């Protein structure tokens, strides 16, 4: 099983961690609210975890354009 990180806006793959390298608690999943977990964490049929987060470029874009936070998806 692996944990895949990708940008939820532009889809850029940001990295992969094998679960032998880290446990969910070590990654901070337990500090996310239930809603954040439902929005950010997805498990595929093979048991791999997919984390939808913001890449640095999309984070900077939202910092410069706060109105983007009002849209669920702004990169098409």
In short:
With 76 residues, the chain is an alpha+beta fold.
Which terms would index this structure?
single chain; 76 residues; alpha+beta; 2 helices; 4 strands; elongated
What does this structure look like?
With 76 residues, the chain is of the alpha+beta class. Helices cover 21% and strands 26% of the residues. It has helices at 34-40, 56-64; strands at residues 2-7, 13-18, 41-43, 49-53. Strands 2-1-4-3 form a four-stranded mixed beta sheet. A hairpin with a 5-residue loop joins strand 1 and strand 2 (13-18). The longest helix is centred in the last third of the chain and has 9 residues, at 56-64. The chain is elongated. The model has no long low-confidence stretch (mean pLDDT 88).
């Amino acid at each position: 099983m692996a944990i895949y990180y990708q940008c939820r806006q532009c889809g850029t793959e940001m990295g992969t961690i094998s679960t032998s390298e880290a446990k969910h608690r070590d990654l901070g999943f337990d500090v996310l609210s239930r809603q954040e977990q439902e929005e950010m964490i997805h498990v595929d049929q093979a048991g791999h975890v997919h984390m939808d987060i913001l890449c640095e470029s999309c984070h900077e874009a939202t910092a410069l354009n706060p109105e983007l936070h009002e849209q669920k998806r702004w990169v098409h």
